[in-house]
Design a protein that fits this description.
By secondary structure, the protein is α+β, with helices and mostly antiparallel strands. Helix content is 26%, strand content 29%.
Amino acid sequence: MILHLRAKPNARANQLLRAADGTLTVRLKAPPQEGQANAVLLALLAETFGVPKSRVMLLSGHTAPFKKVEIEGISEEEGAQRLAQLPAGK
């Protein structure tokens, strides 16, 4: 499964949000320095989708707010179900 999302570092809490139009935003407590926010992002996605961290890979956007992430071991249907359960965001 491939996810396209927007990362916002230096947030108060780690949170994955789904907007009404289906876009994903992830708020991360970590700063965007030395890959800290990316590491937190991958760990949060692994926890959310119930897969090991080794199955979550950042494909693009290593230094940008817009990221492309691959999650192995999750079908599109399973992923859609998990995303539908996310809290609504802006």
